[in-house]
Amino acid sequence: MALVSMRQLLDEAAKGGYGVGAFNVNDMEQIQAIMEAAKETQSPVIVQASRGARQFAQDRYLFHLILAANELYPEIPIAMHQDHGNSFETCKSAIELGFTSVMMDGSLKADGKTPASFEENVEVTRKVVDFAHERGVTVEGEIGVLGGVEDGHGAGGSGLDHITDPDQAVEFAERTGVDALAIAIGTSHGAYKFTKKPDGSVLKMDVLIAIHKRLPKTHLVMHGSSSVPKDLQDIINQYGGKLKETWGVPVEEIQLGIRNGVRKINVDTDNRLAITGAIRKVFAETPEKFDPRDYLKPAREAMQKVVALRMQQFGQAGHAQDYKPLPITAMIKGYADGTLDTRPSVVGV
Ligand SMILES: [Zn+2]
């Protein structure tokens, strides 16, 4: 099985009425955890690398880790996605490396910090869409600005600073032709998302529902959607960590999103917490150990458990064998002849 286009994977998820977790990879243990979870639950999967990951691991290492996953798990559809591309050049380099999907986050300027204007966002995203679709590659855009900072990327501040305006989302989808759209509904990157269990005053699910009604063919993406479960926080603090009390996005809210057009859910923090907790536990309980495998193995298992649970909760479990990946040439043809066009004026809403 070849790597699959993220567009095909999300179209299938829409048909099946489920969401697909997009899990970040930086090293071998993380991709092993993701792929074992996908095998265990028979899930299609999105593996994504941020710019920070590409710097940390180097492109060639990352690319070959993905190729190895593809060889070892031929029954699992895998989309390889660039998370938060900051410029046309970053997205172009990911496409040339063999990624099947890119995010052009034009909500921020290329410094990855300063909010960009709507016109700037449209312009750079449209340029990436033209380049990517000619090559059969999927594009995720972003409208509105998420809170927090992750891997040096983000405007900081609260998730409520720049909530997506549904009218702008429709105009953006029309003018760019993106396949998937990340929207800002109050979530933030990182562990510190909410200071109490989020309700409608801080998590704007009504905005998401309004956007989906007007953009039924554009797959919605939830970023900053780790649930930051208390048991994972507790393990870290029990073994010497100092995390402040915090709340993530409850799984029930994500499931409500999935019933309303959310097809891709980004999860990174929960996996980071699971890994760190498992390593701290080994260090605290058996300080005489010094073989990295003694703590990397439980770390990998802890992450696999979180990923497998999310795959079940998002509904992607059991869907690995539903379809055959289309060749990239079929995607190129679909974009060229208009059958993959999602613009609201074309799909008639
Ligand atoms: Zn993100």
Could you list some keywords that capture this structure?
349 residues; alpha/beta
What is the end-to-end distance? 36 Å
Secondary-structure element order, N to C: HEHEHHEHEHEHEHEHHEHHHH
Portion in strands: 5-15%
Structural class: alpha/beta
Number of helices: 14
Query: What is the total tally of β strands?
Result: 8
Label the overall shape. Answer: globular
**What small molecules does this complex bind?**
zinc ion
Our Rg estimate from Cα atoms comes to 19 Å
Percent of residues in helical segments?
Answer: 40-55%
Largest sheet: 8 strands, parallel, barrel
Instruction: State mean pLDDT (0 to 100 scale).
Output: 93
| Low-confidence spans | none
Major β-sheet strand ordering: 1-2-3-4-5-6-7-8
